[in-house]
Amino acid sequence: MPANPDYRLDEALYVLRHAQVSGVVCSPATFETAAAVAAELGESVWLRANEAGQHAVPTLEESMGAGTPAQVPPGTGNATDTALIIYTSGTTGFPKGAMHSHRGYVLTAEAFVGRLHLQPSERVMCVMPLFHINALMYSVGGAFACGGCLVLLRKFSASSFWRFAAESGATEVNLVAAAGSILARRPREEFVPGHRITKMFIAPQTQEMVRVMKNEFHVPRLIECYGMTEIPGVIANPFNGPHKLGTMGLISRHPDTTIAAPEARIVDDEGVDVAQGEEGELLIRTPTLMQGYFRDATQTEAAFKAGWFATGDLVRQDADGYYVFVARKKDVMRRKGENVSGAELDRIFGEHPAVEEAAAIGVPAELGEEEIMLAVQLRKGQTVNPATLVAWAKDRLAAHKLPRFVVLVDAIPHTPTHKPAKHKLKADTTLLARAVDLAGGAATR
């Protein structure tokens, strides 16, 4: 059960207690928190460090090499046993532990090999956290499954990304959208032309990101995709195209055609399939589906609709069958009788040259429903007038989608998986008071 090393004591204690761990392996940097958790959980929970440091416990390596090896008992497990529990980010309430079997992990890793055409000569560079399925199942699993090499970094560093890529000979890397956008905007003197990366697995993509990666950084293939902790690796743009920017792609199946392909439906609020082109909630059935949420039968039952996993994502299918993400159902604002996607606004305003990141949330309207507030983190050294920023988007967004309130923030908060933590923005009662209200000509206050 991988855990976020940035957990504070209360967060770590909740997750590790809920997971009923019997041992904790930590880094020297997280030793204080891990030791406090282990002490709270009791003497039956052992603690080891992953490397030497200023701590009072042996390393895992030292423990494994000490004494006379005990006789190894015969194996009793099978492919359907739970191998892994990954806790979700917990954007609404307590984190939930998604359970995956040995078979599910292997199928996910093998499917990633097919999705990215990974070869035995591959050097897969992993810059994302190992408590996330992207790193743990795609990068680590994919490197093992193709028989290639895993190039593992402690964390993502934009300033040294290209230098390390060139020095390590990396050929493939997975990124979240935020990391891709940061790289596209970094000083060009950080770029190292001698790198060997030919493939990136990244979503969602923007026109700027694709242009820079292909034309300036010379990465020929950028594969846009879709997956969740509960349903890893189900939809992606085909490796050999056509690549449709801004889409999740098509159903992505295992290279072994005897393995059942993932299935998808798009349904309305009553569970009825919608017509092609219409928006609805995405339901999924796949061989890599989680086994359920650990010790949470209620949430497990709530996650399924008649045997289909309900993603909570609103999507549509275009004329070519490509799936297009619209919004999280809980990231949809209702304004003047119309639904507005928060994710769409995040993407559009995030493309403004002065904006580092933007996040749209709903706030109560005087006459019911919601108004839209946009939290904006500016790029270093940049300034922007809220009215000018919103006017810039008028040609790209319908009038009812334009934010009424704009507030400048030092930093957009993130979940552990690098998504905007909108629940934290909504909980900050000072934002609305600090925001510029663009209604009634009050844009310059």
Proportion in helices = 25-40%
Got a strand count? Answer: 24
Number of helices: 13
Low-confidence residue ranges: 441-445
Beta-strand fraction estimate: 15-25%
Q: What is the number of domains?
A: 3
Q: State the CATH architecture of the largest domain.
A: 3-Layer(aba) Sandwich
Task: Indicate the CATH topology of the largest domain.
Answer: Rossmann fold
Q: Assembly type of the shown chains?
A: single chain
Estimated radius of gyration: 23 Å
Q: Mind summarizing the main beta sheet?
A: 5 strands, parallel
Q: What would you give as the CATH superfamily of the largest domain?
A: ANL, N-terminal domain
Overall spatial form = globular
Give the overall average pLDDT: 91
InterPro entries: AMP-bd_C, AMP-bd_C_sf, AMP-binding_CS, AMP-dep_synth/lig_dom, ANL_N_sf
GO molecular function, one term: medium-chain fatty acid-CoA ligase activity
Family: Belongs to the ATP-dependent AMP-binding enzyme family.
Domain AMP-binding enzyme C-terminal: 344-419
Report on this model:
The chain is of the alpha/beta class and about 450 residues long. It folds into three domains: about 1-65, no CATH class; about 90-260 and about 285-305, ANL, N-terminal domain (Rossmann fold); about 335-440, ANL, C-terminal domain (GMP Synthetase, Chain A, domain 3, 2-Layer Sandwich), CATH 3.30.300.30. Helices cover about 25% and strands about 25% of the residues. It has 13 helices and 24 strands. The chain has helices at about 10-20, 30-40, 60-65, 100-115, 135-145, 160-170, 175-185, 205-215, 295-300, 340-350, 385-390, 420-425, 430-435, and strands at about 25, 45-50, 80-85, 95-100, 125, 150, 170-175, 200-205, 220-225, 225, 235, 250, 265, 280-285, 290-295, 305, 310-315, 325-330, 330-335, 340, 355-365, 370-380, 405-410, 435. It has a five-stranded parallel sheet, sandwiched between helices. Strands 13, 14, 16, 17 and 18 form a five-stranded antiparallel sheet that branches. The protein has a four-stranded mixed sheet with strand order 21-22-23-24. The protein is globular. The protein starts with 8 loop residues before the first helix and ends in an 8-residue tail after the last strand. The relative contact order is 0.08.
